[in-house]
């Protein structure tokens, strides 16, 4: 039997979510090992000492960056054409997401850890990115046009995390296109399929296959 890759994952982590979204779309099956961030399995740390999820262990090696896992899965099989559906300027949004937006998101969500920063200003900074997405999404359902692309799946989990820092605030904003985009994602079978709850993995447990 061919080796089924192992994915160390954490349900609510947006990086792990984007990896699971790509794996689910590609149909690439993995052995899912749910982890607890404060008690990471030694086997995961042995494979990837930096200690972040997601971590994918394949026959050929360890992939411990979420975007690399997305590309790995979709290079093997991309039935939705997620990679092709992405022009360069949309791909650049992923860099903005992972850089300044994620920083501002963390500074909003974990404001107590940043006593020198004004949480309102951090949120305003994050909202600049949402405004950019909103403009792109005006008149089209997805960032690249009519079809979902890798950028949508790479960015949506972070926008969800940002919206959930204060849903009343989110709903009151004039970002109707971004709000519709996020709402459609949250209501999708695609989202439901990656948000199954698993008990944390322990050595010796039965294999849990995903998707
Ligand atoms: N650049 C990494 C970032 C992954 C990351 O930071 N994941 C967080 C959870 S959302 C993590 O594992 N943090 C380590 C910790 O909290 O101990 C990727 O894209 O995979």
What topology does this entry show?
Elements: E1 6-9, H1 14-26, E2 30-34, H2 42-47, E3 55-58, E4 61-63, H3 66-76, H4 88-109, H5 119-136, H6 150-163, H7 167-172, H8 176-186, H9 189-194, E5 209-210
Parallel strand pairs: 1-2
Antiparallel strand pairs: 1-3, 2-5, 3-4
Bound molecules: glutathione.
Short structural description:
The chain has 211 residues and is of the alpha+beta class. It has nine helices and five strands.
Number of domains: 2
Global mean pLDDT:
96
Rg (CA only)? 17 Å
Helical proportion? Answer: 40-55%
By DSSP (H or I, 4+ residues per run), the number of helices equals: 9
Tell me about the largest β-sheet. 5 strands, mixed
CATH topology of the largest domain: Glutathione S-transferase Yfyf (Class Pi), Chain A, domain 2
CATH class of the largest domain: Mainly Alpha
CA-based shape: globular
- Give the strand content: 5-15%
Write down how many β-strands occur, each being a DSSP E stretch of 2 or more residues: 5
CATH architecture of the largest domain: Up-down Bundle
Give every kind of bound small molecule, once each.
Answer: glutathione
**Helix/strand/pairing class, anyone?**
alpha+beta
Q: Going across the major beta sheet, what is the strand order?
A: 4-3-1-2-5
Q: Quote the distance from N terminus to C terminus.
A: 18 Å
- Low-confidence parts: none
Order of helices and strands: EHEHEEHHHHHHHE
């Amino acid at each position: 039997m061919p080796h089924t890759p192992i994915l160390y994952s954490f349900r609510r982590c947006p990086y792990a979510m984007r990896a699971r979204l790509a794996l689910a779309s590609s149909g690439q099956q993995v052995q899912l090992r749910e982890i607890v961030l404060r008690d990471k399995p030694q086997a995961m740390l042995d494979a990837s000492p930096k200690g972040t999820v997601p971590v994918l262990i394949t026959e050929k090696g360890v992939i411990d960056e979420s975007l690399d896992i997305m590309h790995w899965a979709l290079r093997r099989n991309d039935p939705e054409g997620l990679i092709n559906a992405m022009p360069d300027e949309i791909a650049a949004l992923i860099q903005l997401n992972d850089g300044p937006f994620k920083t501002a998101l963390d500074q909003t969500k974990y404001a107590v850890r940043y006593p020198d920063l004004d949480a309102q200003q951090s949120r305003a900074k994050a909202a600049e990115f949402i405004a950019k997405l909103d403009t792109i999404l005006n008149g089209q359902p997805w960032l690249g046009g009519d079809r979902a692309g890798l950028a949508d799946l790479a960015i949506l989990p972070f926008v969800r995390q940002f919206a959930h820092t204060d849903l009343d605030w989110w709903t009151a904003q004039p970002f109707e296109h971004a709000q519709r985009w996020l709402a459609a994602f949250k209501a999708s079978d695609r989202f439901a399929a990656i948000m199954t709850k698993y008990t944390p993995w322990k050595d010796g447990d039965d294999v849990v296959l995903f998707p």
